[in-house]
Predict the structure.
Amino acid sequence: MANLLIAARNLARNRRRALSALLTVAAGVVALVLADGFTQWILWAMREGTIQSQLGHIQVMRPGYLKAGAANPYAYVLPESLPQRKEIESTPGIKVVAPRLAVTGLISHGETTIAFVADGVDPQKEALLSKAFRIVDGHDLSSLTAQEVVLGRGLARNLGVTQGATIALLATTSGGSINAVEAKVAGIFISANQAYDDAALRLPIGLAQSLLRVNGAHAWLVLLDDTERTDDYLTQFRARFPMPENKLEFVPWYQQADFYNKTVALFSQQMNVLRLIIGCIIVLSISNMLVMNVLERTGEIGTLLAIGFKRKKILHLFAIEGLLLGLAGASLGLGAGYGLAEAISAIGIPMPPPPGMEEGYTGEIRVTLNVVINAFLIAFITTALAGLYPAWKASRLQIINALRHNI
């Protein structure tokens, strides 16, 4: 405690220099909190958008569907009568289990015919699962068997249709023949992926089953209460429904979210570079300030050594000054950074459309515990390291040479 008081008084002897160093550390922490918080919000929004529009938290399907399902989709249909679906849905912590039936074929309107990809869905369950889908014209699907579809905005534009138009869907049935149905365009949607919107539509699963002449779904999408518990439920389901007797495969969302995973890797590298830059700025600033303290107090250090202070004691005193600067600067920066993050999030950050999207969005700053811990540790550790060289330099001064500064 005595060493802390002495170090604090020594820092206060040159308040302007100490305040400058303190503000440098605080500014670095603020920059880390805001930059890392904004990155975390982007990744969180992308993760939840991917889960709540395309993948769910866990997908239940026949083993091998992801690898061979495109070549022979009808060999991997999950029958409606399987009891495991109700068992999964009754598990505590499960919001909904939504069936999806994949459909590919041709969509026609007037003289225009375009290839499409589609999902047959249960509209009531998708209301909980597909919150990232946004209907921009018309309305969403109304019932399991309604003769209607919702089109991606790009697909609707290519077909030249609007809400209320009649289209025809053609697809190959499970028996190998061609089947067609007519449906009304109930609405137009946009998602987080423009390429998907250019070719995709959704239709009630009853209509999809009628078009393909099958009874079932290709996958059940499981939506959880908490994304962070995905692995816990994955382990639980695999233990409850082991292979091969159940013939069910459980696939987590992140196993199919290739774009998200690559984005996380890229943003993580960028944040590491930013942390390195800010850490270097803090080290140079604090080291320079403490070296100046050593030079100004050379005579004082010589006197302390002359009256019996050990060099180790001198080393500790100057090292503690660096620790105090790091602790105070990091704490000040965290407070300011959190306040700025909340204010900026309340106002919103208008962002231009990212690659693959037509519309911009309003960003926020998400200050998580990891963001706070990382910013604090980087500032504290770099400041402590910055104080080591000046402290070592002070402890190695020659007594005679140091005493000459008192003359």
Notes: The chain has two domains: 2-50+260-406, 63-247. The chain has a mean pLDDT of 83. The two ends are 33 Å apart (CA to CA).
